[in-house]
Hints:
Elements: H1 3-24, H2 32-35, H3 42-69, H4 73-98, H5 105-110, H6 113-147, H7 154-169, H8 174-203, H9 207-217, H10 234-250, H11 253-259, H12 265-299, H13 311-318, H14 322-355, H15 358-361, H16 364-392, H17 397-408, H18 410-421, H19 431-452, H20 462-476
Amino acid sequence: MNSSMVLMVISAYFSLLFLISWFTSRNVSSDTFFTGDRQSPWFLVAFGMIGASLSGVTFISVPGEVGNSNFYYFQVVLGYTLGYLTIAKVLLPLYYRLNLVSIYAYLEERYGFWSYKTGAFFFILSRTLGSSIRVFLVAGVLQLILFDDWGIPFWVSVLITVSLIWLYTHRGGIKTVVWTDTLQTLFMLVAVGVSIYLIGKDLGLAGISGFISTVTQDSRSEIFNWDWQAGTNFFKQFASGTFITIVMTGLDQDMMQKNLTCKSLGDAQKNMFWFTIILVVVNLMFLSLGVLLYIYSETNGIALPTRTDDLYPFLATQHFSAIAGITFVLGITAAAYSSADSTLTALTTSFCYDFLNIEKRYEKERQVTVRKQVHLAFTLLMFVVILIFRWLNDQSVINAVFIIAGYTYGPLLGLYAFGLFTKWQVKDKFVPYLGVAAPVIAFIISKNSETWLWGYKFGFEILILNGLLMFTGLWLIRKK
């Protein structure tokens, strides 16, 4: 694909996004940005959440990572199902009962002021880092297939990327995001479907049965790892998937804000049920695509790129047909924006409600001005963090996302678990110190686990240890 065609495709795509933004931001109130007026159809939210959950990390990293760790990532996906069940049956009823806009307001009611601020801070930290990594990944691909040919440096391309996100979300907020995420999910799924079909055709696979047979017979499609010392052990991965889901969806303002735009608790739970089924199937598709990409490369004698994250972009833009290249560009662009747009909205919501008390401190007219200033500030912050991550990063992004989540979401996991499953009150002023201590201790244990724990190596389950340390700390400072 040449850069002119890529530019045309992206321009057409953004024309659609801005059209949706225009329709959804008409006649909005000052609360619409945060709540979507609680009128979103549940099936629309469910479908749109697929794109936001997958993002560019799944789109790029998961297929490439198959070459390093087979289908072991699917063990994490299986753990997702238990996590989503917990969200639907435990957390969503709580949020709807309290009629929350920011889900961290629960922590103030349960513990007090400092616990509330600690929870909101760790969300902002987690989402700023996690979403910046996701945008960094996709910005790198767009740099490769478009901006390098035009002589545009990486920092300028990132600035363009985040500016476009700000432009189509700054008025309608979550109401716009619910609709744009639906479009973005569609393009992501079309892209992977077209890629699988065209690779299968090139390899001479006989329909769906030939596709399934080819994937399952390949050694890279091994799903289960029973080695207890390995970081990819089934029980570690399954438990990690469960808790990652609970914290990165159920305790995450970004994902829950979409659910809270549904008309009722019942609709939100239906959304979660169907979303879970679709998400499992789609992740299996991405892993299968990874196997096909490696087989395609080996069959055609194509030298693999050094980084596994580059495998799919490299083949799609340099070796596939024009149709496959176009759908890939649409898919990767959608992957970039489906995560980042909702994140900026959620970060703005959390900061406005959890730190500025916008609904109490300002009149309606002033609320709009404050919200826009905060929204712009987080856009600029994401830009800076992306550039920092480009300077520091040296590993597969799918791993980086979960490693960061394990440390930054752990305090949230401990806070909510202690609040939901015990009746104790705590000495609230000490909670921020625990929020710092738990990740630090978890990091020290992880770095020394092979020496201290008879060869045991932590994987994504460091999140569980982190949450347990926070839970234990809360128990130690409980009021007697």
